[in-house]
TrEMBL record:
Keywords: Cell cycle, Cell division, Chromosome partition, Cytoplasm, DNA integration, DNA recombination, DNA-binding. This is Tyrosine recombinase XerD. Gene3D superfamilies: 1.10.150.130, Intergrase catalytic core (1.10.443.10). The keyword DNA-binding applies. Residues 115-307 form the Tyr recombinase domain. It comes from hydrothermal vent metagenome. GO terms for biological process: cell division; chromosome segregation; DNA recombination. PROSITE patterns: CB, TYR_RECOMBINASE. CDD domains: INT_XerDC_C (cd00798).
Length: 313
């Protein structure tokens, strides 16, 4: 049973109204909405043990909850995100006249430690991309997915939700619908286009044929990348796939995250002299400070190379 199912119906209604507000006003993705829902359900469940309710808490109670999360050894960044969720929630409740005072108003966010994204080097990426067995349909699909991710820097959610109408093989571009339903055009390199074309011509038509009893029918799945049953891929399935190929390529899973190829795309472009603003645009970052973290990764790699190869380092 999920945490959301364990709280009272009245608390569920309060949370869902807030979630509906976020969806209608801000157009947030389902993944982001789920994160808000989970944060608030966890808080409501903790309040339930304290015989408190969402709309009756004061600042001291919220401080105690944040301290509880610290005690659970949550990272400062996670606690800061949690406080951000609560701030937004109580700002909405105040606006709707469900409370008379915002209990988060005087709380300060903890300064988060900004960890550098893990990025594989270019040889590791080559090994990872070469790991799928492209002699079968699933291997060809997987190679096309990995190549496209590394060529474009897409988020995993953007990749698995990519529709056939969003890709132009002839023009070599894809129309990406990112966070907040913002659209951007991203060019695709020739190597990735070639693998994508092979997948389109050879593997995808076969994967779209699924058996129903003794008859074969064509699925109408509009997603570019489909499962062996002809249905849409999930993030979990893709993450499992990446880990499996990492093992084949001799890459430690400690170096992996769902956005490994996105990080590599950014870092390697900067290493080869790409303009930061261009990388920001390709990644779909609204704030360049989010993109700038990759410059630290590139700078660190240059320092490491200097230490390794300079005679007076």
């Amino acid at each position: 049973m999920s945490k959301f199912d364990q709280i009272s119906t009245s608390e569920q209604v309060i949370i869902e109204r807030f979630i509906d507000h976020l969806w209608m006003e801000n157009g947030l993705s389902e993944n982001t909405l789920s994160a808000y829902r989970n944060d608030l359900a966890s808080f409501a469940l903790w309040l339930k043990e304290k015989e408190q309710q969402l709309v009756t808490v004061n600042t001291e109670v919220i401080q105690a909850y944040l301290a509880f999360n610290y005690d659970m050894q949550q990272k400062r960044r996670s606690v800061a995100r949690l406080l951000s969720t609560l701030r937004r929630f109580y700002h909405y409740q105040l606006r709707e006249n469900n409370i008379t005072e915002d209990p988060t108003r005087l709380l300060e966010s903890p300064k988060g430690e900004r960890s550098l994204p893990v990025s594989l080097n270019e040889q590791q990426i080559d090994d990872l991309l070469a790991a799928p067995d492209t002699s079968d349909d699933l291997g060809l699909r997987d190679r096309a997915m990995l190549e496209l991710l590394y060529a474009t820097g897409l988020r995993v959610s953007e990749l698995i939700n990519l529709q056939t109408t969003q890709i132009s093989l002839q023009q070599g571009v894809i129309r990406v619908i990112g966070k907040g339903d913002k659209e951007r055009l991203v060019p695709v390199g020739e190597i990735a286009l070639d693998w994508l074309a092979q997948y389109y011509q050879q593997a995808r038509p076969q994967l779209l044929l699924k058996k129903t009893s003794s008859q074969k029918i064509t699925s109408q799945c509009s997603e570019v990348f489909v499962t062996r049953r002809g249905s849409a891929m999930t993030r979990q399935a893709f993450w499992y796939m990446v880990k499996r190929y990492a093992l084949v390529a001799g890459i430690s899973t400690d170096q992996l995250s769902p956005h490994t190829l996105r990080h590599a795309f950014s870092t390697h472009r900067l290493n080869h002299g790409a303009d930061l603003r261009v990388v920001q645009m390709l990644l779909g970052h609204s704030d360049i400070s989010t993109t700038q973290i990759y410059t630290h990764v590139a700078d660190q790699r240059l320092r490491d190379m200097y230490q390794s190869h300079h005679p007076r380092a």
